[in-house]
Design goal:
Layout (H helix, E strand, L loop, with lengths): L3 E9 L14 E10 L11 E2 L39 E4 L9 E7 L5 E7 L2 E6 L3 E6 L2 E7 L5 E7 L2 E6 L4 E6 L7 E7 L2 H8 L5 E3 L5 E3 L7 E6 L5 E6 L3 E6 L4 E7 L5 E7 L3 E6 L3 E10 L2 E12 L4 E6 L5 E6 L3 E6 L5 E7 L5 E7 L2 E6 L3 E8 L2 E9 L5 E8 L9 E8 L3 E8 L30 E2 L5
Antiparallel strand pairs: 1-2, 3-35, 4-5, 5-34, 6-7, 7-8, 8-9, 10-11, 11-12, 12-13, 14-15, 16-17, 17-18, 18-19, 20-21, 21-22, 22-23, 24-25, 25-26, 26-27, 28-29, 29-30, 30-31, 32-33, 33-34
């Protein structure tokens, strides 16, 4: 257990078109952000922020001074491969002429915990509590880029751009060089410096944050927990522990809207079902927001509360066919709803002993990662769900998942490559076949009953867990 302390972080902003590498010099104010202390494990806090993992028995304490990437004098601009001194090691089976479900290999690091993953084709992006985003190609280290803030909690890929969400409340935007695919450049930070200056001139643009502090409404003043985009990639959504969701226009990086979404930290957001926005929070609710056109812009309105429970909502996912919504909670359950049945509750998947920390969907498979160190693979057949397999291999909580379908599967069966990031400081690579014989019979299709009033969330993820306010 960890006692949270408030630490001060500078709020810095760079122009979207002309980003300054020394962006943190642009400081408008100092605000409090929630960041856990690495001490006092035995005293339970009033609210558990799960960014920190107590050292595993098999892992030596991490020494920040041992990482060459935390040295401010280290300059990556002159190197073709800025991560040539990476402490990562790859353990991947070279023989790929097989068809099975199981572990293919591991990418192991010594810098810290893995908080975010994004896969696109043969590229894998990994984010952690260091300042680096790593890029892997065909399971080997390919490139990387360095931000001004660590704790990279979210990575999404939108065409040629990569968006990363950080503990300091900022979104950073990156683009690969047209001349060298191994070189990435930061092309902006959201909100932009220009937008912050313009907003700061109007007193009506200020909102009260906490402890009688004020900030312009276009800025997140706490950690960004997740990012997502609408189907046409015209809008970017960011959710934060500051209880808000912000809506950004992707074409010019303008913040269009700030939604006061929940009574506690927003842990997950996802878009599906013809543009509806779903949000899950530490206040135990899942809410639906509908998008409506207003003149040349759009506005989001509260539609309904889909779930209300005592335990924190930690993860959301919509399957590729946009027929099912899945919700993971800190009690280990995964609830689901069916779109074609007017979002009626379809049941509960019961496969984990501890909190469900992440979800991913691909084809007719659903993957749930948990604080119990395991990944459950679920197969959907109509409205029924079968547990195909439990992927075991991590020695710490599974924090994030990314899934890619294999282009040329062996044997003709549909197969997927699954990447799992964990607080054991590793990324594991799994091959999963959708034609497995189930491990167990039909699992958990009854509605949830008797949710506990206190969540058994004994391990860590990048989710905020708090008691639902009455």
């Amino acid at each position: 257990m960890v006692t949270e302390e408030n630490s001060h972080h500078k709020q810095a902003f760079g122009s979207m078109l002309h980003s300054d590498p020394n962006e943190d010099e642009y400081t408008f104010r100092i605000s409090n952000t929630s960041e856990p202390s690495h001490t006092n494990y035995d005293r339970p806090p009033p609210r558990l922020s799960s960014d920190y993992s107590p050292p595993l028995a098999t892992s030596p304490p991490w020494d920040p001074s041992s990482s060459p990437y935390l040295d401010p004098s280290w300059d990556q601009s002159h190197q073709t491969s800025p991560l040539s001194r990476s402490p990562w090691t790859s353990h991947v089976e070279n023989n790929t002429n097989y068809s099975y479900t199981g572990l293919m290999g591991s990418l192991v690091r010594e810098e810290g915990h893995i908080y975010s993953l994004a896969a696109s084709g043969d590229l894998l992006y990994t984010g952690s509590d260091s300042k680096n985003i790593r890029v892997w190609k065909n399971h080997k280290e390919f490139s990387g880029f360095k931000s001004n803030s660590g704790l990279i909690k979210a990575i999404i890929i939108a065409g040629e751009r990569i968006f990363t969400g950080h503990q300091d409340g900022k979104i950073r935007v990156w683009k690969v060089s047209g001349k060298d695919p191994s070189v990435y450049k930061r092309i902006g930070t959201l909100p932009t410096l220009t937008a912050c200056i313009k907003s700061s001139l109007k007193p009506s643009n200020y909102i009260e944050t906490r402890r009688n502090r004020n900030a312009v409404w276009i800025k997140h003043f706490d950690a960004i927990s997740c990012l997502t985009m609408c189907e046409d990639q015209k809008l970017l959504y960011s959710a934060s522990w500051d209880k808000t969701i912000k809506v950004w226009r992707a074409s010019d990086s303008k913040c269009l809207e700030s939604i006061q979404a929940h009574d506690d930290a927003v842990n997950s957001i996802v878009v599906g079902f013809n543009g509806q926005l779903f949000s899950g929070s530490a206040d135990g609710t899942v809410k639906i927001w509908r998008k409506e056109s207003q003149g040349k812009g759009t506005k989001h309105f509260f539609s309904q509360t889909l779930l209300k429970q005592e335990c924190a909502v930690t993860a959301l996912a919509v399957d590729p066919s946009s027929s099912f919504l899945y919700c993971g909670s800190s009690d280990g359950l995964v609830n689901f709803w069916q779109h074609d049945k007017l979002l009626s509750h379809g049941g509960v998947l019961r496969g984990h002993k501890l909190a469900t920390l992440c979800l991913a969907a691909a084809g007719n498979l659903i993957f749930s990662g948990s604080a119990d160190n395991n990944i459950c693979v679920w197969k959907r057949d109509g409205g029924e769900h079968i547990c195909l397999s439990v992927l075991s291999g991590h020695s710490g909580p599974v924090k994030c998942l990314a899934v890619e379908e294999e282009h040329d599967p062996i044997g003709g069966d549909k197969q997927f490559i699954v990447y799992s990031g964990s607080l054991d400081k590793s990324v594991k690579i799994w091959r999963v076949s959708s034609e497995l014989i189930p491990n167990q019979a039909e699992v958990g299709t009854s509605p949830p009953q008797n949710f506990p009033s206190a969540c058994s969330f004994a391990t860590q993820g990048s989710c905020r867990v708090g008691q639902r306010r009455k």
